User: Fold this.
Amino acid sequence: MKKEEGILYIVATPIGNLKDITLRALEVLQEVNIIAAEDTRHTLKLLNHFKISKPLISYHRHNEDTKTEILINKLKQGENIALVSDAGTPGICDPGAEVIKEAIKEKIKIIPVPGACASIQALIGSGIDTSEFVFLGFLPTNKKNRKVKLEEISKTKKTIILYEAPHKIKETLIDLEKILEDRKIVIARELTKIHEEFIREDIHTLIEKAQDLKGEMVIIIEGSKKQEENIFEKMTIQEHYEYYEKQGLEKKEIIKKIAKDRNVPKNDIYKLFI
Ligand code: SAM
Assistant:
């Protein structure tokens, strides 16, 4: 009889406060055959704290390819594996994506075990709109890619979530200052830890304070309130008409579109073109 395949559990761990481990995470870590960890020494401390003893396999950014194959083989042999990162949710700016992708290809069952994720804790505590948001991870350090991301931030109407390291926070805030105008910005620092704080100041004040900002931090930025430029406002009615005519539209359709673009009754436009 073919041995049943194992399950890949993606287990979130605390981002500072060990009390944030869930009962389910502890149960899964206790019951799996192997724990794949970003840094085995780091995870060992967590396991020791909760008196869990398990074989550990290291799985990090620099060995993801080779270790993915090993983990998939073990899963195929029926071993249950829990994947953890150093803190928070694996796969979110942490290793995990590769083995998850391969497991899906191999039709191996995946069970995410929810828990802490710095981005979500920061967002909900920031007071900035949570109805629509974009998570951009860390800003790229490559100049060109960074410019593209900053451009994206300057335009998006959705709340933005960024991760940043303390030694780069000043540089990032200076770049953001150039594009943010009067949008709100909040820094969520040391979440779940003793010195947890939400800093709700304008960007200029944040830059002044930047060198004193220590610890781990998330930046939450309000979406852009800029109205999209209405290109038709600068055209005469005739130019507006020709714009659509060149696209091959019929007179009736053009009139309907002009009325909509200019937010005026269709009849007013119709009268101009009879
Ligand atoms: N996988 C993690 C998660 O679920 O949030 C994120 C890992 S990423 C390598 C590390 C970044 O997450 C830090 O540089 C910081 O931006 C953010 N972060 C992690 N823990 C944090 C905390 N306690 N307070 C604020 N930000 C935190």
